[in-house]
Structure formats: structure tokens, C-alpha cells
Write a structure and sequence with these properties.
Length: 632
């Protein structure tokens, strides 16, 4: 049960690679993202940022004025000028403090709304980008999947879509520190300037350390992805039965902990490096505070400034730290802005990946004569082994063709090429004399209706599960019912708790699940509904994997009856159930080695006959002794 472990790249190397992008483009991209969503909301967030920066300073200054006026008001009485000044200072303090309190709920609501809208927009963009290529090769590319994981924010629970609001909070805090430096400079210009310089100098190495930590996290993307894979597998229902039957529960928990421990080391190393940076900067910061406090105390002791000014200056001295102090928001922001360029890169890369599958000719009413594979070869990316090699095949329209072969012969890959989920690495697929690469991919895919061996079980209503064969015609109630009747699924659907409105999943209230054979009929109904709305080729890829031998034979008999006159391709590794197909092709070693009718191929005594007889022997051989004794 050993699994390969992730590898790490040097954090310094990654910091150099990502640092410039994070600093230069990430924050600018965050601002642009906000303005692209809504100018109104952008102004609201900007107002929030300014208010967050200014109101705390006003409260602190007002309190300083109160403290400064308090002794004189006590000595002279509240009816004196000093008393009136104290009343005004108290009133100002109350107003500023009240505004600061009211800002909290407003900030929470605004943050929630903006973050939700930005996340929805960004997730929709990612969905559109991933769905744009007509093929599926990009979903098997580890490097692209790494980018997608960061762009979705699924690894550290830090979403790139939160970057604009988080940036506003970070800038608000920094603006508070800048204002504190300015207020301090009103009393002693050199002190305000000195504190600003100290904190800016402190900020630079701390930011560089943070970028290095983010880069190190990204270097361990594989570790995070594997950890989350084990987590989701253990918490989901897909593998629940096998985990329990095979006793894998303890193993999967152990694997999760092992990978998460590696991920935690990344975090631990980054924190240690950050702490060391802080400790290295402790001395200059301490000297700045001591020097600033001493200067204020000297001025106060020599009556150069009053009690109020001393209070304001001391408070502002402490508040200047917000120019250089980097907290949790700043760390999360570094992660967010490092991932924002991934969104743009994914969109651009996936657009480019769609180019090789481009085509402009419409596929309406194609094919009318034939689908022809001419010397077609194919190998998957990052593989040296050819799945198909020089394959020649002609599929005539209006007839049933069966493609048979042992597991691993390349049958499913052939379906992917026909559906144009991949293009051949060599050779060509030709539709009525037109190369498939010249036909508009989406248009062609609407012409091919496929029931895959791993067909999708949508946790939606039965109506949608059938109607998705042609989503533009979901309102065709009669057509959906007719397709279900043809597939033998009508009675079982009408017998569900809520009929056609029943959700086909037990994970939802009022839902119901189906057996493998029942799902098979629903999937066939979906394909037949597509045929009724214009699809020209119906492909069944190992469609009876869930059925026993008798049910499989019945399925094919019914299927060939209801599709008589249509162009059908049946992919199977079972020879006994496809004998009624008008053309049978044997796929072996990545090419077609025999073709003809069942009778002709058996009479020829070649590869088909050999494999057919070998499979048939399982059902025609001698009975076990105990069965012979029990026979009447």
C-alpha cells in the first residue's frame, strides 16, 4: 500500500520565481478584480478602508485631548473655558467611538457580500475555463491541476477571491500607521519621519520572508493535494464500502496524517524563519521605541508639550507599528495574491489548449455515409506506449457495429477519439470525406451520444438524468418519456417515490438510489433522448458491466431492436452478446485485426473465433459434480 511521496523544491528558488509576481502583479490584480466586479462595491470597500484607518486615530486623538483638558477643567470647574473644552473633547470622543463601533457590523456585512460575489465570479470563471477545451487532456495534467488547486483556494482554505477585501484591510491598517506617523510629525517632524523609516525598513525583510514561506508552500502542492485526497476519500461515500470491506480505514487515516505532517513541516519551517526575522529586527525596533519615548518624556518634563500632547504622542508612537507589523491578514494576502495570476494563466492556457481541437465546419446531419479511421495512432501525454497503432476502421451509417477485444485493447480510447475528447497523435478520423479536425468540436460532439462504462449518475431528478441527453430540450416531456420507455426505464421511474421528480440519490431528502442495472437503463434513455434530438451516432462503451450474462443478452437484443436503422457502435470485451451486430471488429494490439459478421468470423477460425469459443466454454463446459448429482 505504499504510495509515492511528494518532493520539495528549494524555497529560495521558488521565492525568486514568485516574489516579483506576487509583489508586482498580485496586488494590482486584486484591485482590478474588485473594480471588474462592480465600481459601486469598489467605492464602498475603499470607504471602508479609509474609515478603518481614520476612526481609530480620531478616537485616540480625542482621548488625548480629554486627558489634556481634564486637569484644568478640574481646577477651574466645568463652567470655565477649560470645562467647555473638555465637554467638546468628550463629545468628539463619543461620536468618534460610536462611529467606530457602528463600523464593525457594516464591515462584516460588506465583507461578506463582496467576498461572496467575488468568490462566485471567480469560481464561475474557473468552471468556464476548465470546461472550454473540448478535450479532457488538461484534466490529466498534474501541473495544471496544481494551479487549479491554488486558484480554487482548496489547499489552505485561503481563497484568491478574498484578496481584494483582505488587501483593503491590510492597507487600512498600514494607513492607520502612516496617519500615526503624520500626527507624530505634527509635534516633532523628525520623530514621525524616523518612525516611518524604521517601520518601512522592518517591513521589507518581513515581506520577503513571507514570500519565501508562500513559495515553500507552493513547492509542496503535491503533498497538500494528496493529503486532501485522503481526507475527501475518507469523508465521502464513493469509497466507503471498500474502505470498510477491505479494512482500509486505519490505513487511509494514517496516510492522511503522514502527508499532513509533511505539510505541517512546511508551515513550521516558515514560521521559524519568520520568527527569526522578527527577532533579528527586535533591536532596531526597541531602540526606535526607547528613543521616541525618551524624546517625548524629555519634552513633557521640560514643559515643551502638555499632558494632552504627551498622551497623543505616546499613543501615536505605538500605533506607528502598523506600518511595519505583518499579521495574519498579511500572510493570508500573500497566499491569495500568489494564486490570483494562476486564474489568468489557467484561462489563457486552457484557451490555448482548445486550439488544437479547433474546427469551423458545422456537423449538422453528419455523418451521412461513414466514419473512417485512417491509420490512427494515439498515445496519452507523458506516456511512451501507443494505445492505438495504425488503426483502420470504417463505420457505415445506418448499421450496427460491434468492436470487441480484451481489456486494455484500446476500446475506450477509440471512443474518446470518436467523441473528440482527444485527437489522434497520428493518422486521421474522416467523416464523409471531411477530416474531423476541420469540424467544429462542440457541434460534432452533439452528433455523438455516448453511454460510457462509467456513466455519470447525477444526484438530480430522474427527469434531468434523462433530459441531459439534450439539455436544450429539457421541456420535451413527451420525448423524455418516450426515451425512457424505449430503454425500459419508464416503469421503474414512474414507480419512484416522487416519480419523475425523484432525486436519484439517497444523500438528499426524499431521494432514492437505483441498482446498477436500473442506472444502466436511465443512462441508455439519456442517450436515446439525444438521438431523438439530432445526434447521429450512438455509442455504448461496455454498457452492460453491471448486468449478468442473461440480462446482458436481453439488453443487447432490445438495444438492437430499438436502434434498428441507426448508426450504433457497441464496445465490449464480451463476445457472446454482440453476435447480432451487422459488423463485428476485433481490436487487438491497438489495431483492427479482424472484421465481419459473427458467423463469418467464427467460420474463419481466427482470433475472434478463438476468444469467442474460450468465453463460451465457461457456459457450455461440464457441470460441477454436485450439480450433476442434484440434476433430475
Amino acid at each position: 500500500m505504499a504510495a509515492s511521496r511528494g518532493t520539495f523544491r528549494s524555497p529560495r528558488t521558488l521565492a525568486a520565481a514568485f516574489g516579483a509576481r506576487i509583489a508586482a502583479s498580485g496586488r494590482v490584480r486584486a484591485v482590478r478584480l474588485l473594480f471588474e466586479m462592480s465600481k459601486g462595491w469598489s467605492l464602498a470597500v475603499t470607504g471602508l478602508m479609509v474609515a478603518n484607518a481614520v476612526l481609530p486615530i480620531l478616537v485616540l486623538v480625542a482621548l488625548g485631548l480629554v486627558i489634556g483638558d481634564l486637569p484644568a477643567a478640574i481646577r477651574q470647574g466645568m463652567s470655565s473655558a477649560a470645562g467647555h473644552r473638555l465637554e467638546l473633547a468628550l463629545a468628539f470622543t463619543c461620536v468618534a467611538y460610536l462611529a467606530n463601533l457602528l463600523l464593525g457590523p457594516y464591515q462584516d456585512i460588506l465583507t461578506l457580500v463582496v467576498r461572496t460575489r467575488l468568490n462566485d465570479d471567480l469560481q464561475a470563471r474557473l468552471m468556464a475555463a476548465v470546461s472550454e477545451p473540448t478535450g479532457v487532456a488538461h484534466l490529466e495534467d498534474p501541473a495544471l491541476l496544481d494551479k487549479l488547486a491554488w486558484a480554487r483556494g482548496e489547499l489552505l482554505n485561503v481563497r484568491p477571491s478574498d484578496a481584494p477585501v483582505t488587501l483593503a484591510l491590510v492597507l487600512g491598517n498600514m494607513l492607520t500607521g502612516l496617519i500615526a506617523c503624520a500626527v507624530l510629525g505634527l509635534f516633532r517632524w523628525w520623530l514621525g519621519l524616523a518612525m516611518l523609516a524604521v517601520w518601512l525598513l522592518v517591513r521589507q525583510p518581513l515581506q520577503a520572508t513571507m514570500r519565501g514561506q508562500v513559495a515553500q508552500y507552493r513547492g509542496g502542492t503535491d503533498v497538500f493535494r494528496r493529503a486532501y485526497y485522503f481526507l475527501h476519500t475518507a469523508l465521502g461515500s464513493g469509497a466507503a464500502k471498500e474502505l470498510r470491506v477491505f479494512g482500509l480505514s486505519d490505513w487511509i487515516v494514517g496516510e492522511y496524517r503522514q502527508y499532513w505532517a509533511k505539510a505541517a513541516k512546511l508551515s513550521h519551517r516558515g514560521r521559524l524563519r519568520f520568527i527569526r526575522s522578527y527577532l533579528g529586527l527586535f533591536v532596531p525596533v526597541l531602540l526606535a521605541y526607547v528613543g521616541g519615548s525618551a524624546a517625548i518624556a524629555w519634552a513633557g518634563f521640560h514643559h515643551e508639550i502638555g499632558l494632552g500632547e504627551v498622551t497623543i504622542m505616546l499613543v501615536m508612537l505605538v500605533t506607528t507599528s502598523q506600518v511595519g507589523t505583518l499579521g495574519r491578514n498579511e500572510m493570508e494576502l500573500q497566499h491569495m495574491v500568489s494564486a490570483l495570476p494562476d486564474v489568468d494563466e489557467l484561462e489563457r492556457e486552457l484557451r490555448d489548449r482548445g486550439a488544437p481541437l479547433a474546427g469551423t465546419r458545422p456537423a449538422v446531419r453528419l455523418p451521412e455515409r461513414e466514419v473512417r479511421f485512417e491509420r490512427v495512432s494515439f498515445r496519452y501525454p507523458r506516456s511512451d506506449q501507443e494505445v492505438l497503432s495504425g488503426l483502420d476502421l470504417v463505420v457505415p451509417t445506418g448499421h450496427s457495429t460491434a468492436i470487441v477485444g480484451l481489456n486494455g485493447a484500446g476500446k475506450t480510447t477509440l471512443v474518446k477519439l470518436l467523441s473528440r475528447l482527444h485527437d489522434p497523435t497520428a493518422g486521421a478520423i474522416v467523416i464523409d470525406g471531411i477530416p474531423l479536425t476541420e469540424i467544429e468540436p462542440g457541434s460534432w460532439q452533439r452528433q455523438v451520444s455516448v453511454v460510457n462504462q462509467d456513466f455519470t449518475r447525477y444526484p438530480l431528478s430522474a427527469r434531468e438524468n434523462v433530459g441531459f441527453g439534450s439539455p436544450a430540450h429539457l421541456d420535451d416531456e413527451a420525448g423524455i418519456i418516450a426515451a425512457a420507455r424505449q430503454a425500459g426505464a419508464l416503469d421503474l421511474i414512474e414507480g419512484l417515490p416522487h416519480g419523475w421528480d425523484t432525486v436519484l440519490s439517497r444523500e438528499y431528502a426524499g431521494g432514492a438510489d437505483l441498482s446498477g442495472g436500473q442506472w444502466q437503463r436511465v443512462a441508455l434513455a439519456r442517450a436515446l433522448f439525444a438521438i431523438s434530438h439530432g445526434a447521429r451516432v450512438l455509442v455504448l462503451d461496455e454498457p452492460t458491466a453491471w448486468l449478468d450474462v442473461r440480462a446482458e443478452a436481453e439488453f443487447f437484443d432490445r438495444f438492437l431492436e430499438i436502434t434498428a436503422g441507426a448508426t450504433t457502435i457497441v464496445i465490449s470485451h464480451r463476445f457472446s452478446t454482440v453476435r447480432r451486430a451487422e459488423q463485428i471488429c476485433v481490436l487487438d494490439g491497438g489495431r483492427i485485426v479482424e472484421e465481419g459478421t459473427h458467423e463469418a468470423l467464427v467460420e474463419r477460425g481466427g482470433r475472434y473465433a478463438e476468444m469467442f469459443l474460450a468465453q463460451a466454454a465457461r457456459f457450455t463446459g461440464p457441470q460441477p459434480a454436485e450439480e450433476q448429482e442434484a440434476a433430475p
